[in-house]
Amino acid sequence: MTSGPKIESAAVPDVGNIAISNRIFYACMVILSGTYVFLIVAMLLADVWYVAEKTIDAASEAADPWQAMWSNNPISVALADPKIQYSIRLSLISCTLAAVLSVLFAVPIGYLLSRHNFPGKRLLDAVLDVPIVLPPLVVGLSLLILFQFRPFAFVARDIVYQIPAVVLAQFSVACAFAVRTMKSTFDHIDPRCEQVAIALGSSKAQAFGLVVLPEATQGIMTAFTLAWARSLGEFGPLLIFAGATRMKTEVLSTTVFLEMNVGNIEAAVAVSLIMVAAAVAVLILTRVFGGSR
Question: One MF term in GO for this entry (predicted)?
Fold first, then answer.
């Protein structure tokens, strides 16, 4: 009588070693994540500390320290400068226009890429990533060269190194980020609701406007925020295509560059903090608005 094949018993896992391995795994994850978060927070705190030091120095040398802390700190001095006031106004206007245009173009592009297959879709998808991967200076130089050829050359005098160039340069880069956001938004919206609306007699436009867009509201707000913040921080294309002329095409990002060029580090740091505050305020408002829907 022959015996059957021997069945090897499964190895019992070492619970102690697994626990140690898990601790090491999460420790590595936490260390790497914490290092990057620390870098971000440290950069912001360094700017705040620098401004605080200059404020204390100004207060210590003044007859009225409290008054000096309010009026002679770098941020107050920067906000009182007419040139910086102009750059703040132009930044708010140009960033808002660029963000609105970005969303206006990103919604149909993201919808088509998400819902339809067509010849050249992969090529179009790759082309839309070009402004993201190109060096910013190259984007500005390409825009500058573009307006040397017809039909763009006919309007070059009214756009290049003028205020419209600021909006166009910001839009050229920011729209690519908005497109990615909207495509992801439409990818996560169930197409069956739209198909049911069409089956019940709605046109494609009605189904899109009454069913899809309300579902994409939070994604639209996210795209707007991302485009606005990206426009605010844009520098390379602006420097090449719009220039950095005081009281003309100067925005906050170029103000930092101009103040650094003349050695006014206090004003440059103050303006950078204003940019951070503006970006954080828009982010908070958008998160609150998006979460309330």
Answer: ABC-type sulfate transporter activity
